[in-house]
Specification:
Length: 317
Amino acid sequence: MAGRGTVKPHSGFNANNDAEVLYKAMKGLGTDEDAILQLLTARSNAQRQEIKAAFKTLHGKDLVDDLKSELGGKFESLIVALMTPPIKFEVTCLRDAIKGAGTDEKVLTEILASRSANEINEIKSLYKQEHNDDLEEDVTGDTAGHFKRMLVVLLQASRQPGVQEGLIQSDAQALFAAGEQKYGTDEGQFITILGNRSSAHLRRVFEEYRKLSGYEIEESIQRETSGTLQEVLLAVVKCARSVPGYFAESLYNAMKGAGTDDQTLIRIMVSRSEVDMLDIRAEFRKKFATSLHKMIQGDTSGDYRKALLLLCGGDDA
């Protein structure tokens, strides 16, 4: 997936120069928000960490603290997210989802369903390091039922690699028997198969499932399950089909209708900007009657909008 992001390392990078530009942008009366957003969206996360270090060396101040005191609202949240190292950002999102008032199941679902095994393992160890708590224990303490079981399976990050030809048929049959074919639903089967097979394997199973049942697996999940379990199963299925496709849909849902889910918008635009934003844009254009760029433009405003559009990186007419 290398090189499918919209944000790339800046070629003539000089951390000290960038630190000075930011210092000047915040010095004295008023803040030059434009200078801040133009610079930070044009640097990779690794480069932003170097700028943060240079800023402290040159000025004896913490860059993120300064940004927080100068900026406000959604724009501040976006800039602070851009300044956070990627895995630490995910850890913070998960921690807030668990420790805030109530549980933000949407965040748990999105991160745990979409990240690779390596990323999940990095997230688990940094979570332990940062919070001295076990992520799995925190998740199980805050969720219940089949939803909890599915999250625990995803947290094991131990999908079987490759396609197991011998299992495709029996997996499809087991899913059919666990749902459409019986009165009630055997959720456990869905959890085990969807949580333990590789994406490539699952795509073959979904094909077989359609031949067998006459339904797309998504239709059956919608009929056979509900609530948070349905959400996480659908997320896993969508990610098995296409991770960028899943994020394109999540972005669309964050902006469609009245109001905007800014938390989701920021989380996805920041965390995918160096990973697969170009693919997300292409999927978005395929699925919806508009481009990601146009939708962000119509749904946000001010410096917040400017920065998001720079992360989006272009319009797909």
